[in-house]
Amino acid sequence: MCSKQIKTVPSTKLENPGDVAIRVTGLGKTYKIHDAPSDRLKEMLIAPLRRRLGLREKSYSRTFKALQDVSFELRKGETTGIIGRNGSGKSTLLQIICGTLAPSEGTVEVNGRVAALLELGSGFNPDFTGRENVYMNGAILGLSEAEIDAKFASIHAFSEIGDFIERPVKTYSSGMMVRLAFAVIAHVDADILVVDEALSVGDAFFVQKCMRFLRKFMETGTVLFVSHDTGAVINLCNYAVWLEAGKMMGQGSPKGLSEAYLEKQYESMQDVVRKQTSASDLDAERPGKEQSHFSPAVRDMRADLIAGSTLRNDLEVFAFDETATGFGAGGAHVDKAQMCDANGAPLSWIVGGEAVQLHVQCSASADLRSPIVGFILRDRLGQTLFGDNTYLSHHDKPIAVAKGAQFAARFDFQMPLLPQGDYTLSLAVADGTQDEHVQHYWLHDAINFKSHASSVSTGLVGVPMQNIRLETR
């Protein structure tokens, strides 16, 4: 099995320093940890006394490095995502950038007004009312009282907390707290917006409102975004930084880093077999060779594509690429995969909306008690559009596979309409249940698609309509 090396893109020194919104250089943060409260007192009183008397120094603490030698640049107008597991140093990094925490070493240069939502209600006084906290928080973020007066009605409306604006913040739920906090930072006219997992709290309607605000802000402003949701990072960001145990694992393409991050998570939980490839493979394209068969639907309408029709969805399918990057524990392998028509004939073109089959042929390198075969289709940004696996179809009667045996999966579905662009299909084989399993083989970008013409008007994918009618009565 193969795997990516993590591609590290060094910070680029810009010809115009004004293009940099945030520059982090050699940043480090070290904490002293005392095993008992008395050790802190001993370090303050006894340690200096021992030095003064010429006695051998004794340490009453140990150090913990929350960040080590972190360097990157965020240009104005960019949206950068910070990914990493809990405890990787993401929140510490943001607090230093926002000035609420001092670094132990290194420098941070920030050019512009920063508005930050780091924690639920950070900066709020729980005994103050929502109104009072709006004025206090606005002043901290650089707004005058007159500016807050002019914006207050809009902040109140955005937060959607109603009469609670006149009640103490300590009576708020976590969702109400983040509503008000986000409403304030949405109205401070900041140059740089820093968001740390804030959108994980709240109902779907408010989260959608926040996402609309973020996308509007991203048109002109600079965003530093932290999330465990790699899909959100891929969707929102055009650059990414990956932290692990306080160290930088890499920076660059959100899609490439997210795939490497996913691999690292499986590697930490399971024995993953890795085969190194060059760093350039992180963003490499491997279109493969075109297959030789066309479905009847495509044969009948090829002339329309040549004529430039945009009323259909024509998808070019490239051959299975077994050399694509991937990872896994090594107990299974995907030998071949191909898209077929409803009769099982291989396809090189698909019309959006037609019935297709995905055939996946696998082999077992170890005994598998309950194998699961699955796939995911992603767009060029790495956003998951749809996918499925075999678990629910066989969870009540698992099909065991002996070492050395071959097995196959088939998925029958209607191909949705895909907007113009490039798409990839990833494949995986695991053993276990939906929630508890060993990932034996994961192959990124195993099959590539290219949509040449599309009838899709909105959305990531289109649903083939059976009938559309407009009547007057």
Describe this protein's structure:
It is a single chain. By secondary structure, the protein is an alpha+beta fold. It folds into two domains: 17-269, 3-Layer(aba) Sandwich (Rossmann fold); 285-453, abc- transporter (atp binding component) like domain (Coagulation Factor XIII, Chain A, domain 1), CATH 2.70.50. It is 25% helix and 31% strand. The protein has ten helices and 19 strands. Strands 10, 11, 13, 15, 16, 18 and 19 form a seven-stranded antiparallel β-sheet that branches. It has a six-stranded mixed β-sheet with strand order 5-6-7-3-8-9, sandwiched between helices. A hairpin with a 4-residue loop joins strand 15 (371-379) and strand 16. The longest helix has 16 residues, at 37-52. Residues 1-15 and 274-310 have low confidence and may be disordered.
How are the elements arranged and paired?
Elements (H helix, E strand, L loop, with lengths): L19 E14 L3 H16 L9 E14 L3 E5 L6 H9 L6 E6 L3 E4 L12 H11 L4 H15 L14 H12 L6 E5 L7 H15 L3 E5 L3 H7 L2 E6 L2 E6 L1 H16 L26 H11 L7 E4 L8 E2 L4 E10 L7 E3 L3 E10 L6 E9 L4 E6 L1 H4 L11 E9 L6 E12 L4 E17 L20
Parallel strand pairs: 3-7, 3-8, 5-6, 6-7
Antiparallel strand pairs: 1-2, 1-4, 8-9, 10-13, 10-19, 11-19, 12-14, 14-17, 15-16, 15-18, 18-19
Helix pairs in contact: 3-4, 3-5, 4-5
